[in-house]
Amino acid sequence: MATTPIPSDTFKLGFIGAGKMAESIARGVVNSGVLPPSRIFTAHLGAQRREAFQSFGVSVVDHNHQVVEECDVVIFSVKPQIVKDVVLQLRPKLTEKQLLVSVVAGTKLKDLQEWAGQSRFIRVMPNTPAAVGMAASVISLGGTATEEDGELIEKLFGAIGKAWRANEKLFDAITGLSGSGPAYIFLAIEALADGGVAAGLPRELAKGLAAQTVLGAASMAVNSGKHPAQLKDDVASPGGTTIAGIHELEKGGFRGTLINAVVAAAKRGHELSQS
């Protein structure tokens, strides 16, 4: 049977789970003008989470089944420990006309499709910079999800950063890099700031300089078209301060340590997805 296209001009978007990630996605979609808040729904009984969504116009109902009954695209954004129970509970309400999406970490498409009783599913892995509209998201299409479905989800997640497509088999490695990666960068920012303090800078100035330096360097890596190695070489003049600092980083195994961190996180992600 042919898959019913999602009406791109009138579709309604629902979130099962009203946590920070769902809020970040919803805010991005509204702020970018992809959807008006009147066409976005979620469910929660707690006053704080209800107010968070209602503050930018999203409709908050009392029960998840009301979200499913109302919406064409349903995003599951719940904790991995409960996603199976949530999908099974809602299964009688799900239809083949709906596009189902999961942002749940470590939960495979084959399991989601089995629990839902349908394969029009898309798995997305965003990361925490979604909160500031700078997410790195990766999308993988399930069995009967169409190219049009993929384009729709790319547009939604493009509202909170950048989106790529990849085979689901790469998701453990993606977890190790972009999923866990923000924590590595926060650690680097903290260490840079500590270095500034050790060299005599006031703490607040050191922290601000460290964060802005990382932001600026990342922007150059994204926008310059140059390889990171070339950008590094452009800063490191002969016999200068930068190459002296780089020498110390190399002595400390900086690059190898970061590589090992990504691989270790990817391995742990694989272990968790098997459990």
UniProtKB/TrEMBL annotation:
Keyword Glycoprotein: no
Keywords for the protein's UniProt record, in alphabetical order: Amino-acid biosynthesis, Cytoplasm, NADP, Oxidoreductase, Proline biosynthesis
Domain of life: Eukaryota
GO process annotations (BP): L-proline biosynthetic process
Broad class of the protein's primary localization: cytoplasm
EC numbers for this chain: 1.5.1.2
InterPro entries per the UniProt record, alphabetical: 6-PGluconate_DH-like_C_sf, NAD(P)-bd_dom_sf, P5C_Rdtase_cat_N, P5CR-like_CS, P5CR_dimer, Pyrroline-COOH_reductase
Residues that coordinate or bind NADPH: 64
Residues bound to NADP(+): 16-21
GO molecular function: pyrroline-5-carboxylate reductase activity
Cellular-component GO terms for this entry: cytoplasm
Similarity remark: Belongs to the pyrroline-5-carboxylate reductase family.
NCBIfam families: proC (TIGR00112)
Class of this enzyme: oxidoreductase
Full protein name: Pyrroline-5-carboxylate reductase
Native species: Chenopodium quinoa
Catalytic activity: L-proline + NAD(+) = (S)-1-pyrroline-5-carboxylate + NADH + 2 H(+); L-proline + NADP(+) = (S)-1-pyrroline-5-carboxylate + NADPH + 2 H(+)
Domain Pyrroline-5-carboxylate reductase dimerisation: 168-272
Compartment annotation: Cytoplasm
Known pathway: Amino-acid biosynthesis; L-proline biosynthesis; L-proline from L-glutamate 5-semialdehyde: step 1/1
Residue span(s) of domain Pyrroline-5-carboxylate reductase catalytic N-terminal: 12-106
